[in-house]
Amino acid sequence: xxxxxxxxxxxxxxxxxxxxxxxxxxxxxxxxxxxxxxxxxxxxxxxxxxxxxxxxxxxxxxxxxxxxxxxxxxxxxxxxxxxxxxxxxxxxxxxxxxxxxxxxxxxxxxxxxxxxxxxxxxxxxxxxxxxxxxxxxxxxxxxxxxx
Length: 147
Hints:
By secondary structure, this protein is an all-beta fold. It has a single domain (3-146), classed as Calycin beta-barrel core domain (Lipocalin, Beta Barrel), CATH 2.40.128.20. The chain is 0% helix and 70% strand. A hairpin with a 2-residue loop joins strand 7 and strand 8 (94-109). The radius of gyration is 15 Å and the shape is globular.
């Protein structure tokens, strides 16, 4: 059964040139368990440039997290510790080959809430771009909390 949730995302990147960047956002989404995997689905907010009309699917099962974006961009990335994953990133401006090399892939999810934590290096066309940390927290919306 799908549940309405709040998805909080915190990401940080340390780029090869030395500068760092952080993003934080909170969005509504849905969350469900199927075939021993948990999936959270949310629409990227209009405020995130380049992701207008994009729906993101994050699926976690033991030792593996999959990120799938559909809409004005298309991307399918798989995160498993020590396994380099190569994917095609399609945008309205063209295509890029991305790869990720995860050092940490953790998920602690229940039917009502949980978190996903990723640490990985990002490459574009085999060139190192950034070292990334991503934390996703999922919490079931409770309509009775506001009473």
